[in-house]
Design a protein that fits this description.
Elements lengths: L5 H24 L21 H6 L2 H8 L25 H15 L1
Length: about 110
């Protein structure tokens, strides 16, 4: 069982805001996008199975079309430097898993 800490709750809320921002962008730019997504195959680390990949066919082509230039603030991907601020491993793996769950929840 995963223990929720105040930091993990805050991080999940931040990621949820990003997913909602991304969903709002898709609502504006690609009405009907939800019908194109298979929730069982969502994977933000896969250019074809991430939400944008499923809607547009390719994550990078979608970024160009939407004008977001691989911007993680829309919840379509993670910020990954490989190392956290304090030198510990970054949180990109857990962020990706959380983003996958959050995208499934809003469909």
């Amino acid at each position: 069982m995963t223990t929720l800490t105040p930091d993990s709750v805050r991080r999940t809320e931040e990621l949820k805001k990003r997913v909602l921002k991304g969903a709002a962008l898709l609502d504006e730019m690609r009405p009907g996008w939800r019908e194109k997504i298979n929730p069982d195959s969502i994977n933000v680390w896969n250019v074809r199975n991430c939400p944008l990949g499923q809607v547009y066919g390719d994550y990078y082509l979608a970024c160009i079309d939407l004008g977001i230039q691989d911007d993680p603030t829309y919840g379509f991907n993670t910020e990954c430097s490989g190392v956290g601020i304090d030198g510990s491993p970054c949180s990109c793996r857990s962020d990706a898993a959380t983003l996958n769950i959050l995208w499934k929840e809003i469909l």
